[in-house]
## 1
Amino acid sequence: MRHLLSVVVSVYNEEEALAQFYQVTEGILNTISWDYELVFVNDGSRDQSLSILNRLADSNPKVKVVSFSRNFGHEAAMIAGIDYSQGDGIICMDADLQHPPACIPEIIRRFEAGYEVINMVRTKNESAGWFKNMASSAFYKLINALSDVKFESNASDFFAISRNVAAVLKENYREKVRFLRGYVQNVGFPKTTIEYEARARVAGESKYSIRKLFKFSINTILCFSDLPLKLGIYSGIIVGFLGLLVMLETIYEWAVKGTPNGYATIVVLLCFMFAMLFVIVGII
Ligand code: UDP
Ligand code: MG
């Protein structure tokens, strides 16, 4: 029996890009040795995306459409697409052709070579401005410093996984706040990377605002790092140490000058009280 490849594409207000995306992608999917299904997840688009997708599904039975009642975000859309997919291999990609479908044959070769997680690593990102590029690399530095789990710094939400990995994601990674590309890198299984150049978007504009990206980064750090939780204990230790210094200095003054320093006594007390408080909050 022929293997089945599922291509999961999340779509949010992509009416200008869809026709071209479909044309290019379908062209390539028809040349590979695997059978395919093209799973579009409409993430509550408010433009004509859904009707365009439905028309594609009518004309080609290999096109499937999953549609959300409102915008739930790119991550939720990819998860839904993975849940829905039947393939032996699943590729997640964007609808704006920034993730070149030309990589698909190479992905198939890697699947056939036995790899189960294929990370697509961007070598160049033409459309993201310097700010997004800088923010993105700062984000990966920060999360790698804060978290025990290590992230590929140029990972994108362009990746491919086997049916086994998809099963693990379906069963065991059901948190509400997710960072899919992080999970994919940390589920185990034979893993490989393919490099690609992210070209400029074919049409329309980016659906990820800086605000959305910021929220997403904060969530990810809270999910993958326990530093925020331990902040209380660390503050407690630092404040307690400060208190100790001031106390030593007070004892010294008292011993040398013979007069206790009332101001210092209050600072010492405050430091110890706060230290205790922070440590207890940290434990809680
Ligand atoms: N997208 C989505 N829901 C959203 C935002 C984006 O499904 O809330 C989709 C979008 O249609 C595209 C992909 O996610 O297929 C990546 O978005 P975009 O190209 O806007 O992000 P960028 O490439 O600029 O980071
Ligand atoms: Mg894009």
## 2
Amino acid sequence: MIYVLGSINNDISLEIERMPKKGETLLADGCRMGLGGKGANQAVAIAKLASSSEKKKRSAVKMIGQVGKDAVGTELIDKLHDYGVDTEFVRRVNKSTGMAFITLTGKDNRIIVYSGANLGLSKTDVDEALMDAKPSDTLLCQLEVPLYIVAYALRKARAIGMTTILNPAPAKELAPDFYYNVDIIVPNETETQILTGINPRDWDSRKAAMNEFHARGVRYVVLTLGSDGAAISDGGKLVSHIPAIKTKVVDTTSAGDTFVGALALMYPHVGMYSFKEACIFATRAAALTVSERGAAESIPSFDKVCAFYNNEIK
Ligand code: ATP
Ligand code: RIB
């Protein structure tokens, strides 16, 4: 089982030709609303990518999060459930559901998040959700919910013996002991620079940044590099660059979330596959996400990834 602790947002995406200037009003070319939030997107990625041959027999993923008691909260829980995410540990609270305002200009997106209910998560929520967790389970976190809750959950998961994965997004300064409880860290370029002070612009700086994370106690480091793919390291033998798949870019929102979700799903099978193969699968899934609009809705199913890449990984 994979437990995802994180945000659930109502995403409002506006397609605009350019950003408005100060004091200017612009008309948008398109507007969409849908399920988003880094936590929810990653949970949906796991559910969609897990639901092929195993066909919704049992959910592979439990979401730990909060939404408001408003209509949109109900809608987002329903969507999570429809995608195959177990929502038993998604609580309803007396705050508005989180929202993300996204502007899409050409290939770029800019996001402002109103956290709302996402900030209400408590240690009790984590304790209840992880009550039956086993050492073979995984905890996946991002940083869109209170930092002390993420730190608490990682500590608890480590004590149980679970695998812990951190997507440190959006980047925030983290105390040194935060990293001790992380098995796999998956930052993008901006997050890497903020967390390590190293701009991962070339291979040497990427290696230096990955080594910095290893020095802090992380076993596997995966830097996602947008259209340049990913750099991966286990701090020993494995140091590799995985190129991105060339694709038509429509909307990159949730590319990172798809990558992280896919990796979380594949990691427990490392042994049957290599860690590098797990990351290649994640790169392929993420490339399909960028070729469609939306956050959760643009994430491909396992069948779609396999069909697209000729069944190379099953
Ligand atoms: P986002 O915030 O847009 O969801 P991110 O900044 O967290 O994404 P990125 O490093 O931009 O993460 O992208 C994650 C992965 O998605 C990359 O490692 C790559 O595999 C894939 N990807 C991103 N952009 C492209 C692209 N233009 N073409 C192909 N693959 C891409
Ligand atoms: O990573 C993409 C997500 O970031 C969006 O869905 C938005 O809700 C923000 O949390």
